[in-house]
Design a protein that fits this description.
The protein has 255 residues and is mainly α. 79% of the residues lie in helices and 0% in strands.
Length: 255
């Protein structure tokens, strides 16, 4: 009995320590983000599950690398840059060229990635991922006009590709070219087609910058009302945008 009692005590000690470590880590993240107060109680009062829930719902989805990782199987080995170059030399397929280009993009070598993406598109001019990556590379190289041309090809091919990802890059390109009215209109069109809280907040920010406070207020108030009556799991998933909507309303009222 003493052995089992000691083993059980060790398990309890381990779980308690794990909860403390996770809780401190997530509490720091929550404090830095300025999340809703109830998250602090969930993290502290719900052993293990509380910190893990916060990590899965709030912390991890905001990490760029985590989001990109969701597009690929967890068991897929990450190839080295040299191996990717070797594959392109031996088998210059569309997939191999795009894989090499994306690794170059990861290390900031966007200019070097452009020829590989252009070569991939000569083999398949409708490959949306290559078109999108090429537009991102042109933007990174301060070639917004070229990025806009590539995005136009992508949007004509499939404007809903990857959950409307190209629309946000299109707005960046229009901003870089000083096309503020066009960027605002793109935001309007995106919010009309995909009326998520994120798109509503981004449109509201544009409207505020343009001095259209009345329209922004109406949009934000409607978004917050929709959020208030949404199911709990939906509210938890999108709390970040509800909080931003509240901040934007305070910004408007403070002017």
């Amino acid at each position: 009995m003493g052995v089992f009692g000691e083993g059980a005590g060790n398990v309890v000690f381990f779980l308690t320590g794990l909860h403390v470590v996770l809780a401190i880590w997530m509490l720091y993240d929550a404090y830095r983000r300025g999340v809703e107060p109830y998250w602090f109680w969930i993290i502290v009062l719900v052993p293990i599950i509380g910190p893990l829930a916060y990590a899965l719902i709030v912390a991890l989805p905001s990490k760029r690398l985590f989001r990109r990782g969701l597009d690929k199987p967890l068991w897929q080995r990450k190839l080295s840059l040299d191996e990717l170059r070797y594959r392109v030399e031996r088998m210059p397929t569309v997939i191999n060229r795009v894989a090499l280009a994306e690794r170059l993009m990861d290390i900031g070598a966007h200019a070097e990635a452009i020829p590989h993406l252009e070569a991939a598109l000569t083999l398949d001019e409708t490959y949306c991922q290559a078109l999108y990556d090429l537009a991102v590379c042109h933007l990174a190289c301060r070639q917004a006009a070229q990025a806009l041309a590539v995005l136009d090809r992508l949007m004509k091919r499939d404007d809903r590709w990857a959950d409307y990802r190209a629309w946000h890059t299109l707005i960046e390109a229009q901003d870089a070219l000083g096309q503020t009215e066009a960027a605002l209109q793109t935001c309007r069109n995106l919010e009309r087609r995909v009326p998520t809280w994120e798109n509503k907040c981004r449109l509201a920010e544009r409207l505020i910058d343009d001095g259209r406070h009345g329209e922004a207020t109406q949009l934000l108030e409607q978004a917050l009302e929709d959020h208030r009556f949404a199911p709990l799991k939906i509210r938890l998933r999108h709390w970040r945008w509800a909080r931003r909507a509240q901040r934007l309303l305070r910004e408007i009222n403070g002017k």
